[in-house]
Amino acid sequence: MRAALACLAVLSLSACGQGGGAPDEIVSVLDNAGEPAAAPAAAFEGRWRTVLETSVEPRPLVLTIDLSDAEPNVTMTAPRQGGARIAFEQVRLDGERIGFATPLGALRFEGALDGENQISGEVFQGGYRSALVWTRAADG
Q1: Are 93 and 37 in contact (CB under 8 A)?
Q2: Which of 15, 43, 79, 91 is at 20 to 30 A from 70, Cα to Cα?
Q3: For residue 71, which phi and psi values (nearest 5 degrees)?
Q4: Which whole-number Å values give the CA distances from 98 to 2, 10, 27, 108, 128, in the listed order?
């Protein structure tokens, strides 16, 4: 848990001051949590990679989406930060749309499938937002 909190703190602090810095907006996918959702697209299953550009240095991230249980399991790992891992508790998959967040929304992402091998969207952190694209990892 400490590693996950450290990862979150580093990600949030390092992104402050980066371009595209409008205040957080409502994450509509997560706001619809009480409504019935369409079945998640099977293409979400697997491992995804991105590089989060920060004011300090680029941060490679790995996202794992597991749809095998009744509830989707979404985790993010930061390989350059000691493998710090965050298991998201706030997750909503609605057809080809996805939203996930840490408690209190300190780190949030909202996006949608863009073909079979890409998820495009925005990450919200530290009062800023920026575009973020995940691509399917070759190993998953």
Answers
A1: yes
A2: 79
A3: -110, 140
A4: 26, 24, 10, 11, 19
**What's 11's DSSP letter?**
H
CA dist., res. 126 & res. 96, Å (int) = 26
Q: pLDDT digits over 100-138, tens only?
A: 998 777 889 999 999 999 999 999 887 888 999 999 998
What is the Cα–Cα distance from 73 to 18, expressed in whole angstroms? Answer: 29
Domain 2-136 grouped into CATH 2.60.200.30: no
Q: pLDDT tens across 8-67, in order?
A: 444 443 343 334 433 334 345 566 665 667 889 999 999 999 998 877 889 999 999 999
| The token pair that represents 54 in the structure block | 């920060």
Residue 70, token pair as written in the block? 């009744």
